[in-house]
């Protein structure tokens, strides 16, 4: 049997985690929390959609949210 297409949560957590982006799932609220490792609550993103969580984590990693460049911890501005 072949491997499934797409990224699993475990793969996304590992890949993004290596770059300081954390995705956590809350079974109690059935939602995902995406944030920078050690990030403030103000930078957290919540969604109940796994695809949205992974896409947002990827955008955070690339330094863009909604097409605008954002500041990343450890990255100089300007």
Structure description:
The chain is built from two helices and five strands, in the order αβββαββ. It has helices at residues 9-17, 50-62; strands spanning 21-26, 31-36, 45-47, 64-65, 68-69. It is an alpha+beta fold and 78 residues long.
Structural class: alpha+beta
Oligomer: single chain
The best one-word shape is globular
Q: How many E-type strands?
A: 5
Q: Name the poorly predicted regions.
A: 73-78
Order of helices and strands: HEEEHEE
Question: Keyphrases for this structure?
Answer:
globular, alpha+beta, 5 strands
Secondary-structure map with pairings?
Layout: H1 9-17, E1 21-26, E2 31-36, E3 45-47, H2 50-62, E4 64-65, E5 68-69
In short:
This protein is α+β, with helices and mostly antiparallel strands.
């Amino acid at each position: 049997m072949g491997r499934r297409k797409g990224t699993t949560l475990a793969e996304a957590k590992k890949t993004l985690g290596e770059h300081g982006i954390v995705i956590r799932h809350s079974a109690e609220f059935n939602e995902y929390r995406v944030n920078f490792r050690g990030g403030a609550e103000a930078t957290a993103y919540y969604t109940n959609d796994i695809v949205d969580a992974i896409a947002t984590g990827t955008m955070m990693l690339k330094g863009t949210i909604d097409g605008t460049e954002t500041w990343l911890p450890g990255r100089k501005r300007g």
